[in-house]
What does this fold into?
Amino acid sequence: MNKSDKVGFREYFGTATMGLTDGMTAALMTSFFMLYLTDYSGLGAFGAIMGSTVLLLSRIFDAVNDPIEGWIMDRARVGKYGKYKPFIILSILTGLIGVTSLFFIPSGASHWVAIVWVVFFYLLYDMGSSFYAPNLIFRSITLDQNERSKLLVAPRIVSMMTGMITVALIVMVSGVNSFVGNMHTSWALTVGGLLLITSAISLIGIGLVRERHHAERDEDEKIKLTDFFRLLKENKPLRVNTLAALFSGFI
It folds into this structure.
């Protein structure tokens, strides 16, 4: 095996921590955003209606947006910092700004202001999260399949640790509120503080990652829709992975 394809501590630490912000924002949005909208944003029942509608429409938006962002990443050129690292950095920053703002809807905002605020910052977060594509980074670090598989372990451990932290979020918000005396503000300070910490660690992590390999591509090569179905037909691991994603999505 080529020595340059050996994965070391630098790659383990970098790939594990670069996803810390992505994991934290996902946990906050799936577990606490609706609670914040209904109980602490000051919007009451309207917050529940707006939140449900935004989350539903965002799934439809993803169906169009995600392939476009994938196309953008695929067509990007290899720069000074690699091909995919800039997109990971962008996802970290948009996650920090977008989710912190979603948990800090201005007090006393009218329904229309709240709608514009939530839609804008949710789309900012959503588009940024789609640019977080760790598998592309793994592919560029090493060509050795066994070494790539090692890179999957540490991010999973970090993801579980992130879940453990968010379980205690209400306790942390209540602790901040004991000093602030305003639950609305306490949510913003707690979420913003957590994301500032995770974003700093994630940026350090992605800074340690070094992209080594990028596939050669023919600029005249055209991708057809039928190629997608051919991949599913001929590539069993891809077929299994796609079906797993489909059913886990239903769950």
The mean pLDDT is 89. The longest helix spans residues 45-75. The radius of gyration is 20 Å.
